[in-house]
C-alpha cells in the first residue's frame, strides 16, 4: 500500500483574525457615526476583545474627529452670514442666549417689571371695547 501523506494538523477554534484596510475604514466609519461596539463586532464577525485589540485607536478617535468636523461645518455656516439658523443655534449653545417672550421695563414708581405676551393678551381681553 502506498504511503499517504498525513493531512496537515489544524489548530482548534477560529483562524487568527487579520484586519484589512477595508476593516479599518469600516470600523472608523461605524464608530464615527455612533454605532455601538457590539454591533460593529457583529458586522465584522469578531468578538469584543478582538475589536479592542486590533482597532483601539480608531475606536477612541473616530467619534472625536467626526464631532470636530461637524462643529467646524457649523462654525463656518454660523459665521458666514448666510445661515441664520446656524448662527442662532451657535449663540444659544455657546453664548447661552435664550429666547424670551417678556419685555422688561421700569414703571412710573421706578420698579423693574416684565411684561409678557400672556399678560398683554389677558389685559386686552379684559379691556372694555372702544366707545363704551
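^ C-alpha cells above, recovered residues below v
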Amino acid at each position: 500500500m502506498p504511503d499517504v501523506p498525513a493531512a496537515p494538523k489544524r489548530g482548534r477554534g477560529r483562524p487568527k483574525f487579520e484586519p484589512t484596510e477595508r476593516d479599518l475604514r469600516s470600523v472608523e466609519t461605524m464608530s464615527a457615526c455612533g454605532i455601538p461596539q457590539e454591533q460593529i463586532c457583529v458586522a465584522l464577525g469578531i468578538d469584543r476583545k478582538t475589536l479592542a485589540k486590533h482597532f483601539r485607536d480608531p475606536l477612541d478617535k473616530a467619534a472625536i474627529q467626526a464631532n470636530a468636523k461637524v462643529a467646524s461645518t457649523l462654525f463656518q455656516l454660523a459665521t458666514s452670514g448666510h445661515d441664520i439658523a446656524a448662527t442662532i443655534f451657535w449663540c444659544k449653545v455657546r453664548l447661552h442666549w435664550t429666547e424670551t417672550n417678556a419685555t422688561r421695563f421700569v414703571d412710573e414708581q421706578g420698579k423693574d417689571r416684565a411684561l409678557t405676551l400672556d399678560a398683554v393678551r389677558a389685559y386686552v381681553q379684559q379691556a372694555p371695547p372702544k366707545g363704551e
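Helices lie at 21-32, 37-44, 48-80, 84-94, 117-126.
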